[in-house]
Amino acid sequence: MPAARLAADVRIRDLTKHYGRLAALRGISFDVAAGEIFGLLGPNGAGKTTTLECLLGLRRADAGALHVGGIDALAQPEDVRQIVGAQLQAATLQDKITPRQALQLAASFYAEPCPPDELLERFGLHAKAHAAFDTLSGGQKQRVLLALAFVNRPRLVVLDEPTAGLDPQSRRELHAVIRQLRADGCTILLSTHQLDEAGQLCDRIGILHEGRLVADAPPSQLIAGARALPKVVFTTAQPLTATMVSGLHGVASVAAHDGGWCADTRDVSGTITALTRQLERDGNPLIGLQIQRPTLEDVFLELTGRAWMPPANPLEGGVTDERNTP
Ligand SMILES: Nc1ncnc2c1ncn2[C@@H]1O[C@H](COP(=O)(O)OP(=O)(O)OP(=O)(O)O)[C@@H](O)[C@H]1O
């Protein structure tokens, strides 16, 4: 691979977008640092795809500012396209085209493309270089689409739900590829519905909710800021009463759980110490013990006040599709 171009940063300010009367983006602002994997997270209809498509110049924003590597993406979309690669939702290729043919075709559009052989190697597709697209597995198809996003040696890659529909093994493989791309000096901006994926893969997460950015921080910081308490989940040889469990040091609330108890606690080690002492005194052996820390799911529920929801009727308000031609 020739020397990578410098990773590009992204700066988004007060981005607003309506579809008719529907406000899809209500003034969102965030930065993606050069060389970072940034994940946009949110339920259906939150505005993830709209954000990415505005950035790529596929949709016209109503207001706001967008810069990629210092280039004004609203004023100079053509210049931004030169340094950005993208894999959009539900992208696909002709059934009979092979990975090599698809990469050669894409390369013909650029002055200094990445050679197809290098991309086949990098994305683990050499063995399938001459196979028809419709004979590839889901994970292999995703890798071809990802490879296509790298033909123009991008400084930023935009991926809309890159692992949607993949099995866990293919998802893990794709995560490894994306991490390698970051190591090679590329900025990655992706959207996902998967909380676990966002937590494992992303350096920073932005949570979108009804067109607003309600959080923007590294996953560990989001989790550390969760209001939800850690849980001590345990089972014992002889049953315990709710009153006894509630009385343990640090316990804020209890619930029956799988033949045992789940205790929300303000002091995990204090609760466990008190529990084990009590059980020793009673001659009641502990059978199972688990500590559950707050998760991104807790954070999401706290920030949005609701669980993942399907999108509201997108056509409410007589909206129209005004997508620009790419
Ligand atoms: N072309 C369009 N015409 C009208 N409304 C649209 C159009 N595209 C998106 N919307 C609406 O704008 C809102 C934001 O949609 P968007 O696709 O950006 O959300 P998303 O977070 O990517 O959702 P998903 O996770 O389901 O892909 C939704 O209410 C959606 O129904």
UniProtKB/TrEMBL annotation:
**Pfam families for this protein:** ABC_tran (PF00005)
Tell me a Gene Ontology molecular-function term this record carries. ATP binding
Q: Which CDD domains match?
A: ABC_DR_subfamily_A
Q: Does the keyword S-adenosyl-L-methionine apply?
A: no
| Residues in ABC transporter domain copies | 10-235
Keyword annotations from UniProtKB, A to Z: ATP-binding, Nodulation, Nucleotide-binding, Transport
The family database entries (InterPro entries) matched by this protein are listed as: AAA+_ATPase (IPR003593), ABC_transporter-like_ATP-bd (IPR003439), ABC_transporter-like_CS (IPR017871), ABC_transporter_ATP-binding (IPR050763), P-loop_NTPase (IPR027417)
Q: Please give the family membership noted in the entry.
A: Belongs to the ABC transporter superfamily.
**Identification of the protein by name:** ABC transporter related
**What is the protein's species of origin?**
Opitutus terrae (strain DSM 11246 / JCM 15787 / PB90-1)
